Amino acid sequence: MELQLFGINHKTTKLSERELFIINDSNQEDFKNFFQSAFSDSVDSFFALSTCNRTEVYIFGSSTSATQIAQKTLEFFGSSDSLNNDLYFFNGNEAIEHMCNVASGLDSQVLGEQEILGQFKKSIQTYIELGSLKGEFQRLTDDIISIAKAARTETQIGFNSLSVSGLSLKIVQEIFEDPAQQKLTIVGAGQMALSVIENFHDNGIKNINAVNRSKKTLTINNSLSIETTHLSQLGTLIQNTDILVTSINSPLPIIGKGLIEQAMRERKNKPMLLIDLGVPRNIEDQVRDLEYAYLFTIEDIELVTQENLEERSFEALKARDLIQSRVESLNQDKANKYSRNEAYAALKNVSSKINDQDFLGLLNSDDPYSSLKQMHVVSDDQLQCISKLTPHAILSMIKEIRSA
Description:
By secondary structure, the protein is α/β, with parallel strands linked by helices.
Protein backbone atom coordinates (compact mmCIF):
# COMPACT_ATOMS: atom_id res chain seq x y z
CA MET A 1 0.00 0.00 0.00
CA GLU A 2 1.20 3.49 -0.85
CA LEU A 3 0.12 7.00 0.16
CA GLN A 4 -0.36 9.46 -2.69
CA LEU A 5 -2.02 12.85 -3.04
CA PHE A 6 -2.81 15.43 -5.68
CA GLY A 7 -4.29 18.90 -5.55
CA ILE A 8 -4.23 22.60 -6.32
CA ASN A 9 -3.71 25.53 -3.99
CA HIS A 10 -3.22 29.30 -3.81
CA LYS A 11 0.38 28.92 -4.99
CA THR A 12 -0.51 27.08 -8.20
CA THR A 13 -3.95 28.34 -9.15
CA LYS A 14 -5.80 31.64 -8.97
CA LEU A 15 -9.13 31.89 -7.17
CA SER A 16 -11.28 32.01 -10.31
CA GLU A 17 -9.89 28.58 -11.31
CA ARG A 18 -9.79 27.05 -7.81
CA GLU A 19 -13.55 27.53 -7.82
CA LEU A 20 -13.78 24.86 -10.53
CA PHE A 21 -12.51 22.12 -8.20
CA ILE A 22 -14.25 22.29 -4.84
CA ILE A 23 -15.32 19.28 -2.75
CA ASN A 24 -17.74 20.35 -0.03
CA ASP A 25 -21.03 19.41 1.62
CA SER A 26 -22.93 19.92 -1.63
CA ASN A 27 -21.00 17.29 -3.61
CA GLN A 28 -19.12 15.11 -1.09
CA GLU A 29 -21.50 12.18 -1.45
CA ASP A 30 -21.31 12.30 -5.26
CA PHE A 31 -17.52 12.53 -5.10
CA LYS A 32 -17.30 9.57 -2.71
CA ASN A 33 -19.57 7.43 -4.89
CA PHE A 34 -17.64 8.33 -8.04
CA PHE A 35 -14.28 7.63 -6.41
CA GLN A 36 -15.32 4.29 -4.96
CA SER A 37 -16.86 3.21 -8.25
CA ALA A 38 -13.99 4.33 -10.46
CA PHE A 39 -11.03 3.25 -8.32
CA SER A 40 -12.27 0.44 -6.06
CA ASP A 41 -9.66 -1.97 -7.47
CA SER A 42 -6.70 0.26 -6.63
CA VAL A 43 -7.74 2.59 -3.79
CA ASP A 44 -8.31 1.12 -0.33
CA SER A 45 -8.99 4.36 1.55
CA PHE A 46 -9.24 8.07 0.72
CA PHE A 47 -10.44 11.51 1.76
CA ALA A 48 -10.46 15.04 0.37
CA LEU A 49 -9.92 18.51 1.80
CA SER A 50 -11.25 21.78 0.38
CA THR A 51 -10.53 25.11 2.06
CA CYS A 52 -10.34 28.66 0.76
CA ASN A 53 -6.68 27.96 -0.11
CA ARG A 54 -6.75 24.48 -1.64
CA THR A 55 -8.44 21.29 -2.75
CA GLU A 56 -6.48 18.08 -2.21
CA VAL A 57 -7.32 14.38 -2.55
CA TYR A 58 -5.44 11.85 -0.39
CA ILE A 59 -5.24 8.24 -1.59
CA PHE A 60 -4.05 5.06 0.13
CA GLY A 61 -3.82 1.98 -2.03
CA SER A 62 -1.81 0.24 -4.72
CA SER A 63 0.81 2.14 -6.69
CA THR A 64 -1.63 3.02 -9.47
CA SER A 65 -0.63 6.27 -11.14
CA ALA A 66 -2.06 9.22 -9.24
CA THR A 67 -1.85 11.15 -12.49
CA GLN A 68 -4.50 8.93 -14.05
CA ILE A 69 -6.70 9.14 -10.95
CA ALA A 70 -6.35 12.94 -10.92
CA GLN A 71 -7.24 13.20 -14.60
CA LYS A 72 -10.45 11.19 -14.16
CA THR A 73 -11.34 13.16 -11.03
CA LEU A 74 -10.99 16.50 -12.82
CA GLU A 75 -13.06 15.14 -15.69
CA PHE A 76 -15.75 14.21 -13.17
CA PHE A 77 -15.79 17.81 -11.95
CA GLY A 78 -15.65 19.17 -15.51
CA SER A 79 -12.45 21.08 -14.82
CA SER A 80 -9.73 18.99 -16.49
CA ASP A 81 -9.04 21.44 -19.32
CA SER A 82 -8.41 24.32 -16.94
CA LEU A 83 -6.50 22.64 -14.14
CA ASN A 84 -4.41 19.82 -15.61
CA ASN A 85 -1.24 21.90 -15.63
CA ASP A 86 -1.78 23.25 -12.11
CA LEU A 87 -1.84 19.94 -10.26
CA TYR A 88 0.91 18.89 -7.88
CA PHE A 89 1.58 15.34 -6.70
CA PHE A 90 3.27 13.79 -3.66
CA ASN A 91 3.73 10.21 -2.52
CA GLY A 92 5.26 8.31 0.37
CA ASN A 93 7.15 10.35 2.95
CA GLU A 94 6.81 13.54 0.91
CA ALA A 95 3.03 13.11 1.01
CA ILE A 96 3.06 12.66 4.80
CA GLU A 97 5.25 15.75 5.26
CA HIS A 98 3.02 17.78 2.95
CA MET A 99 -0.09 16.77 4.90
CA CYS A 100 1.63 17.77 8.15
CA ASN A 101 2.58 21.13 6.62
CA VAL A 102 -1.00 21.70 5.49
CA ALA A 103 -2.56 20.73 8.82
CA SER A 104 -0.15 22.89 10.83
CA GLY A 105 -0.69 26.04 8.74
CA LEU A 106 2.80 26.01 7.22
CA ASP A 107 1.39 25.74 3.72
CA SER A 108 -1.38 28.31 4.14
CA GLN A 109 -1.81 31.63 2.40
CA VAL A 110 -1.61 33.22 5.84
CA LEU A 111 1.45 31.53 7.37
CA GLY A 112 0.57 29.79 10.61
CA GLU A 113 -3.18 30.41 10.33
CA GLN A 114 -5.26 29.07 13.17
CA GLU A 115 -8.24 27.54 11.38
CA ILE A 116 -6.69 24.95 9.09
CA LEU A 117 -6.06 22.23 11.70
CA GLY A 118 -9.74 22.22 12.63
CA GLN A 119 -10.72 22.05 8.96
CA PHE A 120 -8.29 19.17 8.39
CA LYS A 121 -9.67 17.23 11.36
CA LYS A 122 -13.27 17.87 10.31
CA SER A 123 -12.56 16.56 6.80
CA ILE A 124 -11.04 13.39 8.25
CA GLN A 125 -14.05 12.82 10.50
CA THR A 126 -16.45 13.40 7.60
CA TYR A 127 -14.83 10.74 5.44
CA ILE A 128 -14.60 8.30 8.34
CA GLU A 129 -18.38 8.67 8.71
CA LEU A 130 -18.78 8.25 4.95
CA GLY A 131 -16.88 4.98 5.23
CA SER A 132 -14.10 5.88 2.80
CA LEU A 133 -11.35 6.60 5.34
CA LYS A 134 -10.47 3.56 7.41
CA GLY A 135 -7.84 1.08 8.54
CA GLU A 136 -4.17 1.85 8.24
CA PHE A 137 -4.75 5.20 6.53
CA GLN A 138 -7.09 6.34 9.31
CA ARG A 139 -4.43 5.44 11.88
CA LEU A 140 -1.86 7.37 9.84
CA THR A 141 -4.05 10.49 9.90
CA ASP A 142 -3.97 10.30 13.72
CA ASP A 143 -0.17 10.47 13.54
CA ILE A 144 -0.30 13.36 11.06
CA ILE A 145 -2.61 15.37 13.31
CA SER A 146 -0.33 14.67 16.29
CA ILE A 147 2.72 15.90 14.36
CA ALA A 148 0.88 19.00 13.13
CA LYS A 149 -0.15 19.84 16.71
CA ALA A 150 3.45 19.45 17.84
CA ALA A 151 4.62 21.80 15.07
CA ARG A 152 2.23 24.46 16.40
CA THR A 153 2.83 23.95 20.12
CA GLU A 154 6.58 23.31 20.13
CA THR A 155 7.43 26.25 17.87
CA GLN A 156 6.07 29.77 17.58
CA ILE A 157 4.63 29.27 14.09
CA GLY A 158 1.30 30.55 15.42
CA PHE A 159 2.88 33.57 17.14
CA ASN A 160 0.38 36.41 16.78
CA SER A 161 -0.86 34.73 13.62
CA LEU A 162 -4.03 36.06 12.08
CA SER A 163 -6.78 33.72 11.01
CA VAL A 164 -8.89 34.53 7.97
CA SER A 165 -11.51 35.94 10.33
CA GLY A 166 -8.76 37.92 12.06
CA LEU A 167 -7.59 39.38 8.78
CA SER A 168 -11.19 40.28 7.95
CA LEU A 169 -11.35 42.18 11.21
CA LYS A 170 -8.14 44.01 10.28
CA ILE A 171 -9.78 45.22 7.08
CA VAL A 172 -12.74 46.52 9.07
CA GLN A 173 -10.45 48.30 11.54
CA GLU A 174 -8.49 49.94 8.73
CA ILE A 175 -11.57 51.15 6.84
CA PHE A 176 -13.87 52.29 9.67
CA GLU A 177 -12.83 54.89 12.19
CA ASP A 178 -15.16 53.41 14.82
CA PRO A 179 -15.85 49.74 13.94
CA ALA A 180 -17.96 49.24 17.08
CA GLN A 181 -20.64 51.51 15.63
CA GLN A 182 -21.03 49.49 12.44
CA LYS A 183 -23.73 46.92 11.71
CA LEU A 184 -22.51 43.47 10.64
CA THR A 185 -24.40 40.88 8.62
CA ILE A 186 -22.82 37.46 8.23
CA VAL A 187 -24.14 35.05 5.59
CA GLY A 188 -23.49 31.41 6.48
CA ALA A 189 -23.58 29.14 9.51
CA GLY A 190 -20.38 27.11 9.19
CA GLN A 191 -17.20 27.21 11.25
CA MET A 192 -15.83 30.22 9.37
CA ALA A 193 -19.02 32.21 10.01
CA LEU A 194 -18.91 31.33 13.72
CA SER A 195 -15.27 32.39 13.88
CA VAL A 196 -16.06 35.75 12.24
CA ILE A 197 -18.94 36.42 14.63
CA GLU A 198 -16.87 35.57 17.70
CA ASN A 199 -13.85 37.58 16.52
CA PHE A 200 -15.87 40.66 15.63
CA HIS A 201 -18.00 40.48 18.79
CA ASP A 202 -14.92 40.15 21.02
CA ASN A 203 -13.53 43.29 19.39
CA GLY A 204 -16.53 45.48 20.08
CA ILE A 205 -18.84 44.93 17.10
CA LYS A 206 -22.06 43.91 18.85
CA ASN A 207 -24.74 44.73 16.25
CA ILE A 208 -24.69 41.42 14.37
CA ASN A 209 -27.22 39.69 12.14
CA ALA A 210 -26.72 36.17 10.81
CA VAL A 211 -28.35 34.87 7.64
CA ASN A 212 -28.68 31.24 6.60
CA ARG A 213 -30.64 29.03 4.20
CA SER A 214 -32.61 27.67 7.16
CA LYS A 215 -33.38 29.18 10.53
CA LYS A 216 -31.15 27.93 13.33
CA THR A 217 -29.48 29.00 16.53
CA LEU A 218 -25.76 29.68 16.22
CA THR A 219 -24.01 28.94 19.51
CA ILE A 220 -20.80 30.96 19.37
CA ASN A 221 -19.65 30.34 22.94
CA ASN A 222 -21.13 29.92 26.41
CA SER A 223 -22.28 33.55 26.54
CA LEU A 224 -23.21 34.28 22.92
CA SER A 225 -25.78 32.77 20.58
CA ILE A 226 -27.57 34.24 17.58
CA GLU A 227 -30.79 33.31 15.80
CA THR A 228 -30.33 33.33 12.05
CA THR A 229 -32.61 35.09 9.59
CA HIS A 230 -33.75 33.24 6.46
CA LEU A 231 -31.74 33.93 3.32
CA SER A 232 -34.83 35.32 1.61
CA GLN A 233 -34.65 38.35 3.92
CA LEU A 234 -31.08 39.26 2.93
CA GLY A 235 -32.12 42.01 0.51
CA THR A 236 -33.93 43.88 3.29
CA LEU A 237 -31.23 43.28 5.89
CA ILE A 238 -28.33 44.61 3.85
CA GLN A 239 -30.02 47.97 3.41
CA ASN A 240 -28.98 48.61 7.02
CA THR A 241 -25.71 46.72 6.87
CA ASP A 242 -22.31 48.44 6.99
CA ILE A 243 -20.22 45.24 6.91
CA LEU A 244 -21.37 42.21 4.90
CA VAL A 245 -19.33 39.01 5.33
CA THR A 246 -20.24 35.90 3.35
CA SER A 247 -19.12 32.32 3.93
CA ILE A 248 -21.67 29.93 2.51
CA ASN A 249 -21.38 26.90 0.23
CA SER A 250 -22.85 27.77 -3.14
CA PRO A 251 -21.75 26.84 -6.67
CA LEU A 252 -22.78 30.30 -7.91
CA PRO A 253 -22.73 33.80 -6.35
CA ILE A 254 -25.80 34.46 -4.21
CA ILE A 255 -25.26 38.23 -4.11
CA GLY A 256 -25.28 40.14 -7.38
CA LYS A 257 -24.47 43.67 -8.40
CA GLY A 258 -28.15 44.54 -8.73
CA LEU A 259 -28.93 43.59 -5.13
CA ILE A 260 -26.12 45.79 -3.83
CA GLU A 261 -27.12 48.65 -6.15
CA GLN A 262 -30.64 48.56 -4.71
CA ALA A 263 -29.26 48.51 -1.16
CA MET A 264 -26.97 51.46 -1.91
CA ARG A 265 -29.91 53.53 -3.17
CA GLU A 266 -31.80 52.84 0.06
CA ARG A 267 -28.68 53.71 2.05
CA LYS A 268 -28.25 56.94 0.07
CA ASN A 269 -24.79 55.72 -0.95
CA LYS A 270 -23.53 55.25 2.58
CA PRO A 271 -20.38 53.09 2.07
CA MET A 272 -20.61 49.32 2.53
CA LEU A 273 -17.74 46.92 3.10
CA LEU A 274 -18.19 43.42 1.62
CA ILE A 275 -15.87 40.56 2.56
CA ASP A 276 -16.35 37.39 0.53
CA LEU A 277 -14.82 34.34 2.25
CA GLY A 278 -16.60 31.85 0.01
CA VAL A 279 -14.86 29.51 -2.40
CA PRO A 280 -16.57 29.45 -4.87
CA ARG A 281 -17.21 33.13 -4.38
CA ASN A 282 -20.55 34.26 -2.93
CA ILE A 283 -20.52 37.80 -4.36
CA GLU A 284 -20.37 38.80 -8.03
CA ASP A 285 -17.05 40.46 -8.85
CA GLN A 286 -18.93 43.23 -10.72
CA VAL A 287 -19.85 44.68 -7.30
CA ARG A 288 -16.38 46.25 -7.42
CA ASP A 289 -17.71 48.61 -10.08
CA LEU A 290 -20.04 50.31 -7.57
CA GLU A 291 -18.57 53.52 -6.23
CA TYR A 292 -19.41 53.10 -2.54
CA ALA A 293 -19.11 49.32 -2.27
CA TYR A 294 -15.71 47.96 -1.17
CA LEU A 295 -15.34 44.25 -1.99
CA PHE A 296 -12.56 42.02 -0.65
CA THR A 297 -12.14 38.34 -1.58
CA ILE A 298 -9.87 35.64 -0.17
CA GLU A 299 -7.15 36.71 -2.62
CA ASP A 300 -7.43 40.34 -1.53
CA ILE A 301 -7.17 39.45 2.14
CA GLU A 302 -3.62 38.12 1.75
CA LEU A 303 -2.51 41.55 0.59
CA VAL A 304 -3.98 43.37 3.59
CA THR A 305 -1.40 42.40 6.19
CA GLN A 306 1.19 39.81 7.10
CA GLU A 307 2.06 41.06 10.58
CA ASN A 308 4.98 39.34 12.32
CA LEU A 309 5.69 37.49 9.07
CA GLU A 310 9.46 37.64 9.53
CA GLU A 311 9.29 36.10 13.01
CA ARG A 312 6.78 33.47 11.91
CA SER A 313 8.91 32.67 8.85
CA PHE A 314 11.86 31.93 11.14
CA GLU A 315 9.65 29.72 13.29
CA ALA A 316 8.35 28.04 10.13
CA LEU A 317 11.85 26.73 9.43
CA LYS A 318 11.94 25.18 12.90
CA ALA A 319 8.47 23.73 12.41
CA ARG A 320 9.43 22.16 9.08
CA ASP A 321 12.53 20.60 10.67
CA LEU A 322 10.35 19.25 13.49
CA ILE A 323 7.89 17.75 11.01
CA GLN A 324 10.65 16.15 8.97
CA SER A 325 12.20 14.66 12.10
CA ARG A 326 8.87 13.35 13.41
CA VAL A 327 8.00 11.80 10.05
CA GLU A 328 11.38 10.05 9.97
CA SER A 329 10.75 8.74 13.50
CA LEU A 330 7.27 7.63 12.47
CA ASN A 331 8.68 5.67 9.56
CA GLN A 332 11.41 4.16 11.72
CA ASP A 333 8.84 3.06 14.30
CA LYS A 334 6.76 1.55 11.51
CA ALA A 335 9.81 -0.25 10.11
CA ASN A 336 10.74 -1.53 13.57
CA LYS A 337 7.20 -2.79 14.15
CA TYR A 338 7.17 -4.53 10.78
CA SER A 339 10.56 -6.08 11.49
CA ARG A 340 9.41 -7.26 14.92
CA ASN A 341 6.28 -8.82 13.45
CA GLU A 342 8.36 -10.61 10.84
CA ALA A 343 10.73 -11.90 13.52
CA TYR A 344 7.82 -12.99 15.71
CA ALA A 345 6.31 -14.95 12.82
CA ALA A 346 9.70 -16.60 12.16
CA LEU A 347 10.16 -17.58 15.81
CA LYS A 348 6.60 -18.92 15.95
CA ASN A 349 7.44 -21.16 13.02
CA VAL A 350 10.69 -22.25 14.71
CA SER A 351 8.94 -22.93 18.01
CA SER A 352 6.66 -25.45 16.35
CA LYS A 353 9.70 -27.43 15.18
CA ILE A 354 11.77 -27.73 18.36
CA ASN A 355 11.24 -30.02 21.32
CA ASP A 356 11.19 -29.16 25.02
CA GLN A 357 14.87 -30.00 25.47
CA ASP A 358 15.92 -27.62 22.68
CA PHE A 359 13.59 -25.02 24.16
CA LEU A 360 15.25 -25.25 27.58
CA GLY A 361 18.62 -25.00 25.88
CA LEU A 362 17.57 -21.77 24.20
CA LEU A 363 16.38 -20.32 27.51
CA ASN A 364 19.80 -20.97 29.07
CA SER A 365 21.77 -19.72 26.08
CA ASP A 366 23.75 -16.49 26.17
CA ASP A 367 23.49 -16.31 22.39
CA PRO A 368 20.03 -17.64 21.36
CA TYR A 369 20.53 -16.50 17.77
CA SER A 370 23.60 -18.73 17.33
CA SER A 371 21.80 -21.58 19.06
CA LEU A 372 18.87 -21.29 16.66
CA LYS A 373 21.25 -21.20 13.72
CA GLN A 374 22.92 -24.42 14.87
CA MET A 375 19.57 -26.22 15.11
CA HIS A 376 19.14 -26.02 11.32
CA VAL A 377 15.40 -25.50 11.65
CA VAL A 378 15.48 -21.88 10.55
CA SER A 379 15.59 -20.66 6.95
CA ASP A 380 18.00 -17.95 5.85
CA ASP A 381 15.13 -15.47 5.49
CA GLN A 382 13.90 -16.25 8.98
CA LEU A 383 17.41 -15.89 10.39
CA GLN A 384 17.69 -12.52 8.70
CA CYS A 385 14.55 -11.33 10.53
CA ILE A 386 15.63 -12.79 13.87
CA SER A 387 19.16 -11.35 13.60
CA LYS A 388 17.76 -7.83 14.08
CA LEU A 389 16.57 -8.69 17.59
CA THR A 390 18.56 -8.51 20.82
CA PRO A 391 19.13 -11.78 22.72
CA HIS A 392 16.67 -10.61 25.37
CA ALA A 393 13.99 -9.89 22.73
CA ILE A 394 14.48 -13.33 21.13
CA LEU A 395 14.06 -15.10 24.47
CA SER A 396 11.05 -12.96 25.46
CA MET A 397 9.27 -13.75 22.18
CA ILE A 398 9.98 -17.47 22.45
CA LYS A 399 8.61 -17.55 26.02
CA GLU A 400 5.52 -15.65 24.89
CA ILE A 401 4.97 -18.03 21.95
CA ARG A 402 5.44 -21.20 24.06
CA SER A 403 3.08 -19.97 26.77
CA ALA A 404 0.30 -18.96 24.36
